[in-house]
From TrEMBL:
GO terms for cellular component: membrane. Residues 189-216 form a coiled coil. Gene3D superfamilies: 1.20.1170.10. InterPro entries: HBL. SUPFAM superfamilies: Bacterial hemolysins. The chain crosses the membrane at residues 230-249. Keywords: Coiled coil, Membrane, Transmembrane, Transmembrane helix. This is Uncharacterized protein.
Length: 388
């Protein structure tokens, strides 16, 4: 067996950018857009209050709003469960990794890996059968502890993937029903006030532009592993509030101007169909953001499964090392004493180096629930930031 296949390292648990494997855009975005579902109104009264529309318009649209709100209630329930239960299990996987890395790394003398390699060196020098048997049992026991920890982590990861698949099925069903109910509201609005396609096309253009402006800033936040905060921007959709808060100068003015244009566009319809306009804008903003959730589940699962593959490779290294100890202790000893003379620095020190990266992620990954902000308030905030 070639020692080249046994680097005993943490492999790709940390990416090339120095960040933990789950510190990933898709994982962040999944929670981000799930929050759109968490904020959905689940009663007709809550719907009316959210949009501040008249009783008259609510009565006219009741036949289509009532079924829509029932669909929202189901979606909200599933998104709330994801936020409260499934997403925290993704983050808790990082805690498992953190504790493993602490135990595997640490100081060479205190770490599991350090003790495995020091025992291998002692075994290579052992002269009596009793001493050899004792050291072999020690090595096997230490390896068993590490492999058992990996097995538990793999089991939790598999359950998280299963929970994500369950959420995927729920989301697919919810979106099918919501699309039907949303189309019914759209048709009713068209029947009552005529086509609002021109308005919606312009609103979507503004949504795309505003969200595009956030992309680079949001990516920097993720790379830096800072805790994101989100907000529901009325008629536009979910935004990353912590990203917006970091925009200054001309870029802040540019974004504020766009928001003013959205306000002007909406107010241009106020004379006749203000409430209908608001209903349409909110409907399409929800459709756009919740529509992203389903497409983000597979990439999130792929990241977790990649991590599971890394852990399988780490477990294989340990099992292969144990086999090597029992069949060719000289080769195992050569692996444990690199040219530096220190006990396996590529294993012990590299696991130790991973600890702060994983810890940074798990501390930043839990985010507060989003707030709701109006177009006017966001424009004012941006203009203040522009003046700094």
């Amino acid at each position: 067996m070639s020692t080249k296949t046994l680097d005993m390292s943490p492999k790709e648990l940390v990416n090339d950018d120095g960040n933990y494997i789950l510190q990933n855009q898709d994982v962040y975005d999944l929670l981000k857009y799930v929050y759109c579902g968490v904020l959905l109104p689940v009663t007709e009264d809550a719907y009316k209050a959210r949009l501040n529309i008249s009783v008259d318009v609510m009565d006219k649209l009741s036949g289509v709003i009532s079924p829509l709100v029932k669909a929202y209630a189901s979606t909200q329930d599933h998104c709330q469960a994801f936020k409260d239960t499934t997403y925290p299990t993704i983050v808790s996987l990082a805690s498992d990794v953190y504790h493993y890395a602490q135990n595997a790394g640490g100081d060479a003398k205190d770490s599991y890996y350090g003790n495995i390699f020091s025992s291998i060196r002692a075994l290579a020098d052992a002269t009596t059968q009793k001493e050899q048997e004792k050291l072999t049992a020690t090595i096997n026991g230490l390896v068993d502890v590490q492999v058992s920890a990996i097995t538990k982590l793999q089991k939790r990861s598999k359950q998280t993937v299963a929970d994500l698949r369950t959420f995927e099925g729920q989301t697919r069903g919810d979106q099918s029903i919501m699309k039907e109910r949303s189309n019914a509201v759209d048709a009713k609005l068209t029947e009552q006030v005529g086509s609002l396609d021109d308005l919606e096309n312009k609103l979507q253009q503004y949504r795309d532009e505003l969200k595009s402006d956030q992309v680079a800033y949001e990516h920097d936040k993720i790379v830096a592993c800072t805790t994101p905060t989100y907000a529901w921007l009325g008629l536009i959709g979910l935004i990353t509030a912590s990203t917006i808060a970091g925009i200054y100068g001309k870029k802040a003015v540019k974004m504020a101007n766009r928001i003013d244009e959205v306000n002007k566009l909406i107010k241009g319809y106020e004379g006749k169909i203000k409430d209908e306009t608001v209903v349409l804008a909110d409907l399409k903003a929800i459709d756009a953001d919740l529509g992203k959730v389903l497409a983000l589940i597979d990439p999130t699962i792929a990241v977790i499964e990649k991590m599971m593959g890394v852990w399988s490779a780490i477990a294989d290294d340990l099992n292969n090392l144990r086999e090597m100890v029992n069949t060719d202790v000289r080769t195992a000893n050569a692996l444990s004493v690199p040219s530096s003379g220190m006990p396996s620095p590529t294993a012990v020190s590299r696991f130790a180096q991973n600890v702060p990266h994983v810890d940074k992620y798990r501390k930043a990954a839990f985010v507060k629930g989003p707030e709701q902000i109006s177009l006017d308030d966001l424009a004012k905030q941006l203009r203040k930031q522009a003046a700094k």
